[in-house]
Write a structure and sequence with these properties.
Strand order of the largest sheet: 8-3-2-12-11-1-20
Largest sheet: 7 strands, antiparallel
CATH topology of one domain: Serum Albumin, Chain A, Domain 1
Number of strands: 20
Helix content: 25-40%
CATH superfamily of one domain: Gamma-glutamyltranspeptidase, large (L) subunit, C-terminal domain
Strand content: 15-25%
Radius of gyration: 21 Å
Distance between the termini: 8 Å
Number of helices: 20
CATH architecture of one domain: Orthogonal Bundle
Length: 536
């Protein structure tokens, strides 16, 4: 029997994590090793200067916890500093476009990084390997290079439809970044070419030797502070010294007799529980998978949860989030009655247009002792900034904060913004049955929801559950992947819905999962990414 399984959006990461478990580490060691490799081989999807959410289950030790490591506004932020720059809100609710793009790219777009501290904390609390030990594979890929994969190249060359800067600018606008990513002829690397980042390898060696404190309190923190001061950044060493991940008991719900555990606000787990509660009131199997009626009902549940998120879900340190009401079965029954009556929920947007592709990644891991991990981590929308000599890119999470004072997502020192990240576990007969999560900005909750429905309601394997055609609804438009049949789309239009078909066959988050059954484990990696599930 294999000692462990890892599912991740990059083959290098999945293999590195599985090898750590095979060689005696546990699922936590494997997940962190995989996450660090992800920062090296998918450096715009994640990084040590990012943020995320981590759920861990260790049955033998009585541990079941959520470790949230959100990026937080630097102390120099003021609530009204960008209110006069607002142009419009993205249609999918993932951020605001401002004059001068100050929240989208560059030094002011950076929140306080929390990822590295979370990796170190998870290893100290629940792992069996040191941070230095699990960094070895990541250091290798920094120094020896990684082969540019199709999804990496696709992302680098993507031109957004929502007014964001073209992605290539995040690699070319700043000299220290261009030094890493731009070839001598002025072009970016194409699939199959090798990218080396020796500066990041050297930084990782410093961290492996000195621990995460060198990043948050020591010489790396000093370098970061100096760069931010020299270039008009908001981040300071004091922000690094004060940030820390937060351990909580997972947020819990239920669905058709299954226990659901996920993350707390400002994470997206509350939306998962709300949508499952609503859909529990319908015979989804009787409707038929991805039938027009099935998609109508699922779409309305998505819209209801999106409106509630926009109005109510933010950082609990600053916002009174009505968690009990939004996750209650009674509220869900009220919302289900509206759907059954044919009501269409309207999702307000402030002059929004288009939708963005987001920088995030996912890893799931399990070991022979039953320890389980689901972790989503990200750069949000990468800032494009690299401090010369350090090699890693900073997050660009400031772009999702609402520049209007007095709103749920308004700016405030030390505040985290909403993220749809929702690393989730599903339990059957109180035993872990499904670990699932995804990258994809506001698409995340919608992809994870459909993965859960596919596994629980329709009995799909993990691989089939993450590969089945999906929809996404974060506005009044029902977005469809190209594998949703056109006759089904015609039915939706006849019901009065506006639809929009993607040219992509696999889209709307990159869902990854591991399913644990009496017959064994099976894993799935979203075909829209380059990843895999591997057991060793």
């Amino acid at each position: 029997m294999a000692r462990g399984m890892v599912s991740a959006a990059q083959p290098e990461a999945a293999e590195a994590g599985a090898l750590v478990i095979r060689d005696g580490g546990n699922a936590i060691d494997g997940a962190i090793a995989a996450a660090l490799v992800q920062t090296a081989v998918d450096p715009q999807m994640s990084g040590i200067a990012g943020f995320g959410s981590f759920q861990v289950l260790m049955p033998g030790q009585g541990v079941h916890a959520s470790l949230d490591f959100h990026g937080r506004c630097p102390a120099s932020v003021t609530e009204d500093m960008w209110q006069d720059l607002l142009l419009y809100e993205s249609e999918d609710g993932f951020g605001f476009n401002l004059e001068g793009e100050v929240n989208d790219i560059g030094y002011q777009s950076i929140t306080t990084p929390n990822s590295l501290k979370a990796y170190a904390t998870a290893l100290e609390k629940w792992g069996t390997r040191s941070l230095g030990q699990v960094m070895e594979a990541a250091i290798h890929y920094c120094e020896q290079g990684f082969m540019v994969r199709p999804h990496v190249a696709y992302y680098w060359n993507l031109v957004e439809g929502a007014g964001r800067v073209v992605h290539s600018r995040r690699l070319t606008d700043f000299p220290a970044t261009a030094k890493i990513y731009v070839k001598p002829d002025g072009t970016l690397r194409t699939p199959g070419e090798i990218l080396k980042n020796p500066d990041m390898g050297a930084t990782y060696r410093r961290i492996a030797a000195g621990g995460s404190d060198v990043f948050y309190h020591g010489e790396i923190a000093d370098q970061i502070d100096a760069d931010m001061r020299a270039n008009g950044g908001l981040l300071r060493k004091a922000d690094l010294e004060s940030v820390a991940p937060e351990e909580l008991a997972p947020l819990e719900g239920s669905y058709r007799g299954h226990r659901i555990t996920t993350n707390h606000p400002p994470g997206g787990g509350i939306m998962i529980i709300e949508m499952l509660n609503i859909l529990e009131n319908f015979d989804l199997v009787g409707m038929g998978h991805n039938s027009s009626e099935y998609l109508r009902v699922v779409a309305e549940a998505m819209k209801i949860a999106t409106v509630d998120k926009d109005l109510h879900v933010g950082d609990p340190r600053f916002v009174d989030v009505p968690v009990d009401r939004l996750t209650s079965k009674a509220y869900a029954a009220e919302m289900a009655a509206k759907i059954k009556a044919g009501e269409k929920t309207h999702v307000p947007r402030l002059g929004g247009k288009g939708a963005d592709n987001k920088d995030t990644t996912q890893v799931c891991a399990v070991d022979v002792d039953g320890n389980c991990v689901s972790m989503t981590h990200s750069l949000g929308m990468s800032s494009g900034v690299v401090t010369d000599g350090l090699g890693f890119m900073y997050n660009g999470c400031m772009n999702v904060f609402d520049p209007r004072p007095g709103m749920t997502g308004s700016l405030a020192p030390g505040k985290a913004r909403f993220t749809a990240m929702c690393p989730t576990m599903v339990f059957r007969d109180d035993k872990p049955f499904l670990m699932i999560g995804a990258p994809g900005g506001t698409y995340i909750t919608m992809g994870v929801l459909q993965g859960i429905l596919n596994a629980v309601d329709f009995g799909m394997s993990a691989e089939s559950a993450v590969a089945a055609p999906r929809i996404c609804v974060t506005s009044d438009v029902i977005d469809l992947t190209n594998r949703i049949p056109r006759f089904v789309e015609a039915d939706l239009k006849s019901m009065g819905y506006e639809t929009r078909r993607s040219y992509l066959s696999h889209h709307f988050a990159g869902v990854h999962a591991i399913r644990l059954t009496d017959e064994g484990w099976d894993g799935g990696a979203d075909p829209g990414r380059d990843g895999m599930a591997i057991a060793l």
